[in-house]
Specification:
By secondary structure, the protein is α+β, with helices and mostly antiparallel strands. It has two domains: about 130 residues, no CATH class; about 120 residues, no CATH class. It is built from nine helices and ten strands. Strands 3, 4, 5, 6, 7 and 8 form a six-stranded antiparallel sheet that branches. Strand 1 and strand 2 form a beta hairpin. Helix 7 runs antiparallel to helix 8. The radius of gyration is 21 Å and the shape is globular.
């Protein structure tokens, strides 16, 4: 089997061997719906993990709190498969053997399936994002929210406020403390959907955590349930890591929505073409269009 460059699901830039990535696990949408959202074709698990591209379509040295949690979620709902007629490609997929290598290989061979909430087969894929691209967006992208005339700090009549990803995650320790105070061991009251943020947390984080485990996102794992387990165990550090990565996924999904991108596995497998000039031509063309829109 030959080697090839992966394609970044956010920038469409090539991913070369040894480059670090964020991996997002995807559930294929089984019904035909509208095309309003980035999730119209695939629903992502709103929890990434990191991995190093291995030159053959998969990853190695995967890490991050999301990795173990997602692997456990896949094992739990895995549809096991024996070796098929084509012994080279129809590989066995079992819970006992399921690990990092089998995850990437079974997706490549179109053999990874789970049961959804209704017990129906669900095709599982993944997409890789270049870590350097995502980290740059997290560091530099500024959110601008309208709050009303003279209620903000910037823009026309000081009607807007601005903040960044770092401002969101800075409030997570306060959220964990407030959840522990609010529920005091009665974490079953937090609900089964999105995280119920106490009213004492009057920050941007409240809005970003609201309704992010709806039908548009994967239910392979429930962030809320995992958070409950960690709070009950008194493991504040893991709760902090979980929420940080969860908010990271929400932030990136928001960025994809406003740049009109779709969650999906990317094309280009089999190719090692990586010339930079076509990308620069594309970026220049896009910049011209944006400048024209801004001028008008």
């Amino acid at each position: 089997m030959g080697c090839w460059n992966k394609t970044c699901g956010l920038s469409n830039l090539p991913i070369l061997r040894g480059e670090r990535t964020y991996v997002f696990v995807l559930e294929q949408v089984n019904s035909v719906g509208d095309h309003c959202y980035s999730t119209h074709l695939y629903r992502p698990v709103l929890l990434p993990f990191e991995s190093t591209y291995n030159d053959y379509g998969g990853g190695e040295d995967s890490s991050g709190i999301g990795f173990d949690l997602i692997m456990a979620g896949l094992k739990k709902s895995l549809i096991e498969m024996p070796v098929g007629e084509n012994t080279v490609h129809d590989i066995a997929v079992t819970r006992a053997a399921f690990d990092e290598e089998l995850f990437f290989e079974s997706v490549h061979e179109h053999r990874l399936k789970t049961t959804d909430d209704y017990g129906k087969p669900q095709n599982i894929e993944f997409t890789m994002f270049r870590k350097d691209v995502v980290d740059t967006i997290l560091d530099t992208y500024v959110i601008e929210d309208y709050v009303g005339p003279d209620k903000g700090t910037t823009g026309y009549k000081n009607s807007y406020i601005t903040y960044k990803f770092a401002d969101l995650i800075a409030d997570i320790p306060m959220l964990i403390s407030a959840l522990k105070d609010r529920y005091a061991g009665r974490y079953d009251m937090m609900g089964m959907g999105s995280i119920v943020v106490p009213s004492t947390i009057d920050t941007h984080l409240r809005v970003w955590l609201r309704n992010n485990e709806s039908y548009r996102f994967s239910s392979l794992i429930y962030i809320n349930e995992l958070l409950v387990d960690m709070l009950e165990a008194g493991d504040d550090q893991r709760a902090l890591e979980l929420l940080t990565e969860h908010v990271k996924a929400i932030f990136i999904n928001n960025f994809m929505e406003i740049t009109r991108k779709s969650w999906m596995p990317q094309c280009g497998e089999g190719s090692q073409y990586q010339a930079p000039d076509p990308y620069r031509v594309l970026m220049a063309a896009m910049d011209q269009v944006l400048k024209k829109h801004e001028k008008s």
